[in-house]
Design a protein that fits this description.
Number of domains of chain B: 1
Largest sheet of chain A: 5 strands, antiparallel
Oligomer: heterodimer
Radius of gyration of chain B: 16 Å
Structural class of chain A: alpha+beta
Shape of chain B: globular
Number of strands of chain A: 23
Number of helices of chain A: 15
Shape of chain A: globular
Helix content of chain A: 25-40%
Strand content of chain A: 15-25%
CATH topology of chain B: Nuclear Transport Factor 2, Chain: A
Strand order of the largest sheet of chain A: 15-14-13-21-20
Order of helices and strands of chain B: HHEEHEEEE
CATH class of chain B: Alpha Beta
Strand content of chain B: 35-45%
Radius of gyration of chain A: 23 Å
CATH architecture of chain B: Roll
Number of strands of chain B: 6
Number of helices of chain B: 3
Helix content of chain B: 10-25%
Strand order of the largest sheet of chain B: 2-1-6-5-4-3
Structural class of chain B: alpha+beta
Distance between the termini of chain A: 47 Å
């Protein structure tokens, strides 16, 4: 875990964030009516007022990925991020527990810890008037304490400490939080994609993973949902990524006969597979908008792979190792906040900035107990596929941006999600389809409409917005 | 440390200016030829990064990845290169960092304007060239580009800086 204090990151993000004043817009327009079984209205991607409602109703209710416990290994370690609109901080308390607090001093409202990550020491100290807090947010001391005697400010009341995010829960080291007091618990929320998080960790010989090797951050000029839909859009690859898969194929063709295909080429030229290849992939969609897609890379049988498999077998036994590695998945969707990639140990965190701008953060993980070469290979995947300098992603970004700009036109009102509609197979808590179906998009919008039809209350049950 | 030999300073300066021009004019094949076969083009992700194997980078292109990137930039259907990225480098503050038997490490700073589609971006930072002497000229064993805002979120970085 590196503790870079990357203030620059959040500074830029804050400049990017443009929240539009809405004055309770759309209350009567019932945005969930913009979603139909096999199409959605373009305004769900382009209307700033709908974006504001999403912040309240989608990001204000769902469990959102905050980070991984390994990012805050010691007491006082912190990591800041944003949940929807809310600047929050994940902190390790002296009792070992991880807390997620609003990054706001209860006195005058200053952000207590600076943006980025680092160590706050044994306690938090606000820069503005020196109020101090324990790492669970409870008040430790204030200057001029006597000034509060016989006033309405009870310094012993936890309510006067740093406010906690309504709900925090951890799944195998992955920390999630919900801004709403009510709703399903985390395992129930994750449903069928919990198995992806399990496999993410099970692939480590020691059964645990840790964040390592830094965080890459990419700004996209598009609505956040366009990115999510693309994660399981199998048929875009051969078209959109022609420049990179063709370059990779040409590169391999230029190599001497009999050369083993380098990893860098394998992970790029795979996008050139014909549509029949993608058709056969298993796609799963679960309630809540989640889902996963079967892996598209068969693990290469080279020394790096073999050494890794040997390390897993040595700790877990051959039968168990085989069982773990059989779970071969490409992107998993944990809606609406992140996308784990289990076989190359990445988690991409999706942070909407405005209706037409999105920040994607790429975290790479080390499999504890695996050879160094395994982690280095994961970083290679990060660098080649997901980094700002990826040779694959720019064509995605271009496509997303052209979609965003095209949807702003009067050339049509609806976006089609018809492909293979009505041909899904029911599963417990979800549905399965063939690889070329637009089931994942329909599945996400089903969840989206559910969120948008309710109004979260921070204290009490969800009530219908009507 | 600085140059004591005026001629050497000229050779290094002209080499760096030539390299910048090849990049600005998209003469990718000639630019790739400036590297040794094991040469690395590296742009760290964080300030002071010491390693590119156990840490992610903004760019970490060996000969294979440089070649794949160049092949991609020249594809007809490189959609994100419609229009192609344009750049203009200004190189300055060239200084000798250290010297070895067969070459030297050279420090320089750069300002770079980049234009594509509807946005002009400004980049800047410092560069360390690890150069291997070849007659009157050099080959690059490592080009390390330390971007001023390396930790910031970036839109796509498609061309070599």
């Amino acid at each position: 875990m590196q503790n870079q204090t990357d203030i620059a990151v959040e500074r830029q993000v804050q400049q990017e964030v443009r929240f539009y004043p809405t004055a309770h817009a759309q209350k009567n327009a019932a945005p969930h009516t913009l979603v139909q079984a096999d199409r959605v209205h373009k305004s769900v991607y382009t209307d700033p007022e709908i974006f504001e409602l999403e912040m309240d109703r989608v990001f204000g209710q769902a469990w959102l990925y905050v980070g991984h416990e390994s990012q805050v290994p010691n007491t006082g370690d912190y990591f800041t991020t944003r949940l929807g609109r809310e600047p929050v901080v994940m902190l390790r308390h002296s009792d070992g527990a991880v807390h997620v607090l609003y990054n706001r001093c209860p006195h005058k409202g200053a952000k207590i810890v600076p943006d980025g990550s680092g160590s706050a020491g044994k306690f938090l100290r606000c820069l503005y008037h020196g109020w101090t807090f324990k790492c669970d947010g409870s008040l430790l001391a204030v200057p001029l304490r006597s000034g509060y005697e016989d006033t309405a400010m009870d310094l012993k009341d936890r309510e006067n400490g740093v406010r906690k995010v309504a709900r925090v829960a951890t799944y195998r080291g992955f920390v999630f939080a919900s801004l709403a007091a009510d709703g399903p618990d985390l395992p129930e929320f994750l449903g069928g994609v919990a198995t992806s998080l399990d496999n993410f960790c099970d692939r480590a010989p020691d059964g645990e993973v840790e964040v390592a090797g830094g965080v890459q951050r990419v700004i996209q000029r598009n609505n956040w949902k366009i990115f999510f839909e693309n994660l399981h859009d199998t048929i875009h690859a051969v078209a959109t990524h022609e420049s990179s898969w063709r370059a990779a194929k040409e590169e391999f063709e230029s190599m001497p006969e009999g050369t083993q295909k380098p990893f860098e080429i394998v992970i790029v030229d795979g996008n050139g597979e014909p549509l029949e290849f993608w058709e056969k992939l298993e796609l799963k969609g679960y309630d809540g908008g989640h889902g996963y897609m079967e892996g598209i890379f068969t693990p290469p049988k080279d020394p790096v792979s073999l050494a890794y498999v040997a390390s897993l077998e040595a700790r877990q036994g051959a039968a168990r190792a085989d069982e773990i590695l059989r779970v071969n998945r490409h992107n998993t969707i944990v809606y609406p906040s992140c996308s784990p990639h289990t076989s190359f140990q990445q988690i991409r965190v999706i942070r909407p900035l405005s209706v037409d701008r999105t920040l994607v953060e790429i975290f790479t993980f080390r499999l504890k107990g695996a050879p160094d070469a395994t982690f280095r290979r994961a970083l290679k995947y990060t660098n080649v596929i997901n980094s700002p300098s990826s040779t694959v992603m720019p064509d995605d970004l271009e496509a997303y941006n052209r979609v965003q700009e095209g949807l702003g036109s009067d050339g049509g009102d609806w976006v089609s999600l018809h492909r293979a509609a009505g041909r899904e197979e029911a599963l417990p808590g979800g549905r399965a389809s063939n690889g070329n179906s637009e089931m994942p998009m329909r599945n996400m919008f089903r969840a989206w409409a559910g969120y948008m039809a309710t109004e979260p209350t921070k204290h009490g049950l969800l009530k219908d917005a009507a | 440390m600085n140059f004591t030999d005026w001629q050497e300073q000229q050779h290094v300066t002209q080499f760096l200016h030539h390299e910048a021009r090849l990049l600005d004019e998209h003469r990718w094949a000639e630019w790739m030829d400036l590297f040794t076969p094991d040469g690395l083009y590296w742009m760290p992700l964080v300030r002071g990064q010491t390693d590119h194997l156990d840490h992610a980078s903004l760019f970490c292109d060996d000969a294979l990845l440089r070649s794949m990137r160049v092949r991609r930039l020249s594809q007809v259907r490189a959609y994100s290169q419609q229009p192609a990225t344009r750049t203009s480098h200004v190189i300055g503050n060239i200084a000798l960092e250290s010297r070895a038997a067969d070459g030297c490490i050279v420090y320089s700073t750069f300002h770079l304007l980049e234009w594509r589609k509807d946005a002009q971006r400004a980049f800047g930072g410092s560069v360390l060239h690890t150069l291997q002497r070849e007659g009157d000229s050099f080959r690059i064993r490592m080009k390390r580009v330390d971007l001023l805002n390396c930790e910031a979120p970036h839109e796509a970085l498609e061309v070599f800086m």
